[in-house]
Amino acid sequence: MTRVAIIRCEKNMDQCPLTTCFRCLREKKEGFSIYEDCILEGVFTCHCPGDVAVILSKILKAKGVEAIHFCTCTFAKNTDEGWVMKDGGFCENIDEIIEHVNRETGIPCVKGTAHLPKDYSLKTWG
Ligand code: SF4
Ligand code: SF4
Fold first, then answer.
1. CA–CA separation, 85 vs 50, rounded Å?
2. Does residue 117 register a pLDDT over 90?
3. Measured distance CA(54)–CA(97) in Å, rounded
4. Does the CB atom of residue 111 touch ligand 1 within 6 A?
5. Considering only CA atoms, which residue is closest to atom 7 of ligand 2?
């Protein structure tokens, strides 16, 4: 059983209550399909410019979290054709932020949660 956490973007915190993120986690689908079994151990909200993500991740690590997923809406957009990578999502620097978190905490990180774009291969750190 892998203990996972989700970090979401403040730009979406008042629009989306992470419903599909949670559903995918429960059903081990999309970004969570890499686990045989997993359980949600926490959710944090990133704030611009993103430095806080390392602090939040250290807290998650101290609480026993084994992997951190960053929401798909940070790097993809919902369009008439579904979720696409083109034009990105809420965060221009999400790769650098994830890289920083992984380097500073050593926790495996995953870029993606729900509704992964068709042209996207799940990217992981650590
Ligand atoms: S990835 Fe989707 S379900 Fe998760 S917070 Fe973003 S918009 Fe909501
Ligand atoms: S740094 Fe990126 S992920 Fe963090 S709140 Fe800002 S836009 Fe969202």
1. 20
2. yes
3. 8
4. no
5. 91
Q: Is 91 in the pocket of ligand 2 (CB under 6 A)?
A: yes
Q: Would you tell me how many other CB atoms lie within 10 Å of the CB of residue 85?
A: 14
Digit-coded pLDDT (tens) for 70-80: 999 999 999 99
Q: What is the pTM of this model?
A: 0.97
Report the DSSP pairing between strands 67-70 and 109-111.
parallel
- Single-letter residue type at 86: K
Copy the structure tokens of residue 44: 């944090």
**Is the minimum distance from the CB of 45 to ligand 1 under 6 angstroms?**
no
Q: Which of 96, 115, 86, 108 is nearest to 27 (CA)?
A: 115
**Domains within the chain, CATH numbers bracketed:** 2-125 (3.40.50)
